[in-house]
Amino acid sequence: MQARSLTALILRLLHGRVGSSLLMRLLATSTQVISDPVPPHERRLLAFAGGPGCSPSDFSPPADADEDDLSLRSYMQAWCHLSAIFAPAPGSHPRYYCEKGVDNLNMIAAAGIPISIIDVVRDPRDIFVSARAFARRAGRPVFGIDPALPDAVNLTLFLADIAVRADTIGRTVDGAVPLLIRYEAMVHDMPGVVRQLNAAFGLTLAPELVAEPGAHMTSRNVSDSVGRWKRELEPELAELMTHMLDQQLRRFKYALD
Fold first, then answer.
1. Any idea what DSSP says for residue 114?
2. Residues 213, 42: Cα–Cα separation, whole Å
3. What is the CATH number of domain 7-251?
4. Which of 80, 154, 177, 238 could link 233 by a cystine bridge, Cβ 3.0 to 4.6 Å?
């Protein structure tokens, strides 16, 4: 790999609706970060670079994978091409290419691509309420929620999805130790989040330039998006979720009531 190759800065998400777009907008204020500039910032290169017929969850390279592996070669070729496109121009020094929602981190690392990870979490009860509101407004299945199905069905599938995703949060990949960012911190302590990112990745960020989320929001304002489950989630569903997610809530330091 060329010495000037970019580092893949990957946002690993507990689920959708965790503030990944907000974090992408914050990271994009640094001249050191290259990313999709179009909201909601979901055009991806790395998630699907393994070739046709593969989904991200399929990417688990064997222990003896080598440089002749077709998927690894496709990753390397795509990455070299991307790094060449974004080669530092006079006065700019991009170091990272940032992408969110990428699951195939082992494949990326196996291809020899430098990698850094940000784990993004949010209270799962708020995630469910936000995803349900978004799906109802859209009138179609989105974020794992089908507005045509009863809440009990959607919640069962949601809980199973959270359990699987939570298991990956905190895992190191090829020696890369993830930085944990909580949605609630981005809402209530953005300066603290900026300090975390600067310390971990050496970024110069300008949070004052972060645009408002606009139509992507499902709450009245950003502050109301924290703890909204207490107001909007039916008591029986709230009790069930708190019970079923006890381990995850404690792990990520969310109150049980």
1. -
2. 15
3. 3.40.50.300
4. 238
